[in-house]
Design brief:
By secondary structure, the chain is mainly alpha-helical. It has one domain: Multidrug-efflux Transporter Regulator, Chain: A, Domain 2, CATH 1.10.1660. Helix content is 63%, strand content 6%. Strand 2 and strand 3 form a beta hairpin. The chain starts with 10 loop residues before the first strand and ends in an 8-residue tail after the last helix.
Amino acid sequence: MDYVAPDEPCYPISVVARMVSLHPQTLRCYERAGLVVPARSAGNVRLYSQADIERLHKICRLTDELGVNLAAVEVIMRLTDTIEQLQAEIDELQSSYESEIQRLREHLSVNGIVIDPK
């Protein structure tokens, strides 16, 4: 089976509606509210990715299990997106810093300077 990237739009609205147990009109409502933004094909058909489906599952948990209204869902999802973006930036910076520290240690070692790592 071929690998499909999580953000690859490939599922039409009818399939997604069955996958997340929502009416297609509800999905359109979520789109109008900006909660999910499916891609569009050349023929203007909505195509959802696996990431969109996971996002819809989160929305369903918030509304069904926790009783959160759509306005609050919008705020929660926006905050969640921001946190995820910031975490990715932190991870990237940490990796960059660790690489730089390793490079500097190697440079010092080559020049005969020994530092006691604490």
